[in-house]
Amino acid sequence: MRGPGEESVICDRFEGVFAALTTPFAGEGIALDGFKKNILRYNTTGLAGYVVLGSTGEAVFLADDEAEALTAAVREAAAPGKKIIAGASREATRSTSAFVNQLARLGADAALVKPPHYYKAAMTEDVLKRYFFDVADSAAIPIIVYNIPQNTGLPVEPRVIVELARHPNIAGIKDSSGRLSNLVEVIKGVRPDFSFLLGSGGLFLAGLLLGASGGILAAAAAVPEICVEIYSLFHRGRLVDARKLQIDLVPFNKALTETLGIPAIKHALDLLGYSGGPPRPPLRPLDESGKARVRELLEALGRLPGTGGPAAGWPA
Amino acid sequence: MRGPGEESVICDRFEGVFAALTTPFAGEGIALDGFKKNILRYNTTGLAGYVVLGSTGEAVFLADDEAEALTAAVREAAAPGKKIIAGASREATRSTSAFVNQLARLGADAALVKPPHYYKAAMTEDVLKRYFFDVADSAAIPIIVYNIPQNTGLPVEPRVIVELARHPNIAGIKDSSGRLSNLVEVIKGVRPDFSFLLGSGGLFLAGLLLGASGGILAAAAAVPEICVEIYSLFHRGRLVDARKLQIDLVPFNKALTETLGIPAIKHALDLLGYSGGPPRPPLRPLDESGKARVRELLEALGRLPGTGGPAAGWPA
Amino acid sequence: MRGPGEESVICDRFEGVFAALTTPFAGEGIALDGFKKNILRYNTTGLAGYVVLGSTGEAVFLADDEAEALTAAVREAAAPGKKIIAGASREATRSTSAFVNQLARLGADAALVKPPHYYKAAMTEDVLKRYFFDVADSAAIPIIVYNIPQNTGLPVEPRVIVELARHPNIAGIKDSSGRLSNLVEVIKGVRPDFSFLLGSGGLFLAGLLLGASGGILAAAAAVPEICVEIYSLFHRGRLVDARKLQIDLVPFNKALTETLGIPAIKHALDLLGYSGGPPRPPLRPLDESGKARVRELLEALGRLPGTGGPAAGWPA
Amino acid sequence: MRGPGEESVICDRFEGVFAALTTPFAGEGIALDGFKKNILRYNTTGLAGYVVLGSTGEAVFLADDEAEALTAAVREAAAPGKKIIAGASREATRSTSAFVNQLARLGADAALVKPPHYYKAAMTEDVLKRYFFDVADSAAIPIIVYNIPQNTGLPVEPRVIVELARHPNIAGIKDSSGRLSNLVEVIKGVRPDFSFLLGSGGLFLAGLLLGASGGILAAAAAVPEICVEIYSLFHRGRLVDARKLQIDLVPFNKALTETLGIPAIKHALDLLGYSGGPPRPPLRPLDESGKARVRELLEALGRLPGTGGPAAGWPA
User: Fold this and answer.
1) Which residue has the higher pLDDT, D140 or B10?
2) How many domains does chain B have?
């Protein structure tokens, strides 16, 4: 495991900062043009790659053909070397397997898969293991397990992750639980090339310190430079600077992921010149007070032109 | 509101016992033949109607074309006068609306709709109300709100139901929360023709006493006669007899809905000569001990031939 | 088990309506005079007895000497035949045992005992059973298990209750969980003289129908006549009348036990001429809007003189 | 805020590692001799101080006179400069205030106070703030708020902590929630001398990185040297070494605080030559398999003589 100032010797892990992509909509459909333009701009940053069809991408609101079009589009627009992870969760084993492979054909490098969670009481550890093993067995690309109990109501416990990690085609976990103890327990028990990707932007630096290989961050859709810089400062051993950036990021990250949610990410994108736009109903656009709050938070991060905030020297 | 021994004066409510239908599978597909045979047999009972594509029907595991075929099949097989309620929940407003109307075209009399629940933190009461009102506005058939927090992780509170009941196209609620206090609070606040359908077989009689109009019961897929008899005894004022049946039903009902789940319902169907079969993965068929338990519970209810149980005199 | 219209053949059960007593305070101390006056007035009703030192009695705020004085006072003031149940929960086994027997010496007929719940993760079913068995072994009076997970965070599951009921000195359960399924599961498994006392006023009638022996009700501290009448009507087979009373009671009961809480019970007592008074801090007296709501709810029940509400004919 | 390698300029904060003391029992009483011997040995380590009457100390099982004797004993045995924090939580405001001041008279430097949590529904943010302000107003020593929702069932949210921190006599928070996001949110909003003490041994280093001033750790009762070394390495900028120790500590810490609990801490103490002993019922001593697990975990940490584990060079 690498620490600050150490060289990496492992190549296959998913490392670095991945942006959790939003899905721009236009009228009743998706706005593929805006989606691709966002990616072209992300290509100029130090992002390691992109996650399409995740929670931030409103994947649960998309038809299958929309999901496929988005996956093909990110493949087409992504710069060489940027990895593409695609959300591919369904409730039935067979549906997930089929969808994983369809997205693989369209260019995904890995699939992000949540536990089935509608029949919570039936999802014992054995059933979950069988599900992930079956999906991984049939998948043309590596599987990344996605733990997000605040949305699914079903945590995947660290001891289950450790067992899943024995499957050669289960490559890692994205953990959005906010419980860093998961990270430490998992890392003690898995092979060194297993990827641990943080899903909590506010805990990114702490997670890196404890051995996370990277993060899949909603904040990285809006302020990729800051997230990449935290990662970079950490690996150059500049902990004090990294910490300052991390702490500054917290209020913005909390608004994006807890209090205001996806509409706030999309409004931040609009303010920053990306293609954001409204969410799909039943989600609603921000009201004026929410919009003002997003602007204020971006100003505090120095990400809006002319505001002269503390980080005004950041590259646009 | 009717009590035991009183005449009904309301005609449009969903009243009586509805069977929550299972979905028989055959290999990779659905077994429409078995599904229809089940309904033909149910037609001979006092069931008020059928719920297709519910939680018991493994709706979350079905492709859209399978869901449509099942809805058309139940419409075709159902005897005249049997009402058909179809589960039509999606996460996006537009998807739910479209699916409700597609199922209406295929013969559904009403649609059962859960709250969207993936983005739990964003599902404020206002957002939920807007969602249900939008769906009801565009729906060709009445909407029945479906409260099942143990699966969705998102309760629909009684005060929200009371407000939803003001919409002329929101016809009722199915409540599977197990909290009878919901019933009493809702009934105090809604119009007299609003339907309150219990989803908890163990609380069916108590719910009737407090004013429920009926139930949508998993137990009614396996032992419709017992559920119908509880309803009938209650309305004839024979509380003591109704209570005995209700209490006898509890262990079987608990196995079906809590401890053993859908595979137990399907195994009970197999034992009783219906078309049951295995669930779809990741759900698993019962192991031998589970099967023995289902047999034992059916014997205790006198529903298996030759066992001479306490209710052996029941009509087959 | 008795049903409506049947004769009781069991004598030792705790049956009927028990008032969950409040604790009137005066300055820094307890107001024993007011407390006893309340009981003298309750003596004129059909209440089966009294629960002192329960959740309604703010027992967690009382010093041991206050608790002892209240127990002695209720014993002294209670009319012959009224049973006295005293809350005696502590976290350590030895402390609970000692307190149970101290309250027994002061006149309690039975002790109400919650599970220890601070160390939730350690309170396995085995540990809970050992705790209750140890307490019951050493107790001079019968133990009634108290299940109130909304306050303790630790449900006592029906299967545990069934095992506890095998101990000859564990006489019953008070269930405030609001889950009537508990009742049905417990009653199927316990000896006929085991008492099941409902703690949810809104579910009282439904619980009686399913076999509850009675209730310990906060509402019975304010409107004992209504609670007693529900019980009486049920046992005379007058279900329709009982149901009307039950449904009318729900909004008041919900305010007392959920939305406004103990301060509302005490304010209702003040309005009705009992000794209510303020709660102990950190609980706070009702604000004006809460007081108005309590008055309005009592008027709707016809319990305030001169209001001519629907139940104005009730005895004062 | 200090980072690795920076000098501290703040003097009044509670900083460093505090051992959460256990309470040794002897027969029916407490074993003050063993308790004091433990402290004399702790005095030789780099611990910043001691927490008596905390969750680890089985405070909820102690009589008031026992609690007072333990506080006096730790004051007597503690080396000069070791700070003493005493748990002083009661449910009633008046009781907590009185107990805080009684423990202050016996030598406590600060009081650790949980939110009252029995009447959860009544404990609004306003009520909690009033409670802590009232206690702090009357307290002769500083108050440290104690957030341990897994035991209380009542989280104290970061925004509440930020408001409590405005009171000059509320000196800090001990957070055992396991949610490091709490830390970051609190630290952004409080004065620089407000103490943030981690209660989660597995997150200690990550918390220090994000600005925690120290920790109150159950693990520090058994292996104070390791906890102190993590703190020291962090402040000397030796992150890679600190991280190794932190990760090694995780399995032992998890056994002490989650899977095996207080009996495991006490058994570890016995193995290490401290005075451990059995817990008070209803807690139970470890069974043989639990004891073997504790031994194995201590051996893995190199803390048992003769085992030659990876840290065998640690001072005894």
Assistant:
1) D140
2) 1
